[in-house]
Amino acid sequence: MKRILKKGRLLSVIVASLVPCLAFADHAEKAEFFEEITIVGTKQSAQQVTGSAHVISDDDLEIFAYTDIQRILRSVPGVNLQVEDGYGLRPNIGIRGVPTERSARVVLLEDNVPVAPAPYAASSAYYFPTMGRMYSVEVLKGPSAITQGPNTIGGAINFVSTPIPTSSEGNLLLDIGEDSTTRIHTNYGNVTDSGFGFVVETHQWKSDGFQTIDNSNTDTGLDVEDYTVKLSYAPADSRHAFELKYQYAQQDSNQTYLGLTDADFKANPYRRYGVSALDNIATEHNQLILRHEFTINDSATLTTTAYNNEHKRSWYKLHRLNGQSWGSVIEEINTGGTSASAYQAILDGGDSSDGGVRLRDNNRQYYSRGVAFKLDVQAGMHDLEMGLRIHEDEEDRLQRDDNYTQTGGTLVLDSQGELGDAGNRVTQAEALAFYIHDTITMGDWVLTPGIRFEDIELTRREFTGGSDRVLDATKNRDNSVTAVLPSLGALYQVNDTLSLLAGAHSGFGSPTSKEGTQEEESINYEFGGRYQSNELSIELIGFMNDYDNLVGECTASSGGSDCTIGDTFNGGAAMVKGLEFSLNNRFDLGSSVSMPIAFVYTYSDAQFDSTFDSEFFGGVEAGDDIPYIPEQQMTLTVGVEQGDVRLNASVNYVDAVCVNASCGDFEKTEASTTLDLSANYQVNSDLSVFARLENATGEEDIVGRQPYGARPNKARTAAMGMRLSF
Question: What is the CATH number of the domain that holds 672?
Answer without folding.
Answer: 2.40.170.20
